[in-house]
Specification:
mainly beta, 4-stranded antiparallel sheet, 2 helices
């Protein structure tokens, strides 16, 4: 199996050992009854070098939490109360970590299902969904941390990023496809081939279009409700994009782990929003769902 060590040959920034063990990992996207955009800044970033970085609307970075239980985080998702859930792909770090609004860490769930986690997403009821790339399973956890397998096998092959549509269907970034899993766990292929090459992060815009970060071919692709693909961005500020998130104004943010950058869509172009500083291997992105923590804009 091709690894990130091969895919990232020549990249400026080395990835941690945990990430090099796997092919790809994803950013979790929070799910709502309608695909709302983020409530606003700050933007939270899962940095694979053992930390969660908080970024304000000016691009200024700070450490929200680091070390402790985090391992090598790649996936993020907020619950309805503003608590942040974090997952690491490190097989020895088989747990989902909950981080409250003060940055205090605790173990939410642990066990074999979480040994190679790639993505996280919440449904409207507050249940957390977790993708495991190695076992090709989606695990569902309720608010108490009780777990059950929601979907496995079938069309799922190395599932990565997760996102919900308005109807409560779960979209999964698969090997070279996007798979829909309905509320009953039934699978169907939504889009495949074409411009989808090792898709990672997923995010819906307010019109219900799905955006896909293709780690394998350095593109961001829009997939409409019919499953039709169009390339929005390629090269020019991108290199192996991973995490995606929309802010409250509908601007798209993309993480590029090997460059240590977050880029932002502006006037149909991608421009550097923040880079370097605390960012060493930025993967998953999530905007705060706690309105009290929003930037106070003039």
């Amino acid at each position: 199996m091709e690894t990130l060590r091969n895919l990232n040959a020549g990249a400026r920034r080395p990835l941690s050992v945990a990430v090099l063990l796997l092919l790809l990992f994803a950013s979790g996207a929070q799910a709502q009854d309608v695909p709302k955009l983020g409530t606003g800044f700050p933007l939270y970033v899962a940095d694979n070098f053992g930390k969660i970085v908080k970024v304000d609307s000016s691009g200024t970075q700070s450490i929200f939490t680091s070390g402790g239980l985090l391992g090598s985080p790649v996936a993020l998702a907020f619950d309805r109360n503003g608590n942040l859930y974090v997952a690491s792909p490190d097989p020895s770090n088989d747990r989902i970590v909950k981080v409250d609004q003060t940055g205090t860490q605790s173990i939410f769930a642990a066990g074999g299902y979480f040994a190679s986690v790639a993505g996280l997403a919440f449904d409207v009821r507050g249940d957390l969904y977790v993708s495991n790339q190695v076992s090709s399973t989606i695990v569902k956890l309720d608010s108490t941390g009780t777990q059950r397998v929601f979907a496995s096998g079938g069309d799922l092959a190395s599932p990565i990023g997760l996102a919900f549509d308005p109807g409560g269907n779960l979209y999964v970034a698969n090997s070279n496809s996007i798979v829909i899993v309905d509320r009953h766990g039934q699978q169907s292929v939504f889009a495949s081939g074409g411009n989808l090459v090792r898709p990672a992060g997923l995010a819906f815009d307010h019109r219900g279009n799905l955006y896909v970060a293709n780690f394998g071919n350095t593109t961001v692709v829009k997939v409409n409700r019919k499953g039709e693909q169009s390339v929005l961005f390629s090269a020019g500020g991108l290199f192996r994009p991973f995490g995606l998130a929309f802010d409250a104004d509908g601007a798209l943010y993309v993480s590029t782990p090997t460059l240590g950058q977050i880029v932002r869509e502006a006037e149909r172009e991608l421009r550097i929003f923040t880079q370097a500083g605390f960012l060493e291997g930025p993967f998953g992105l999530a905007f705060s769902r706690d309105r009290s923590s929003r930037d106070k804009e003039p």
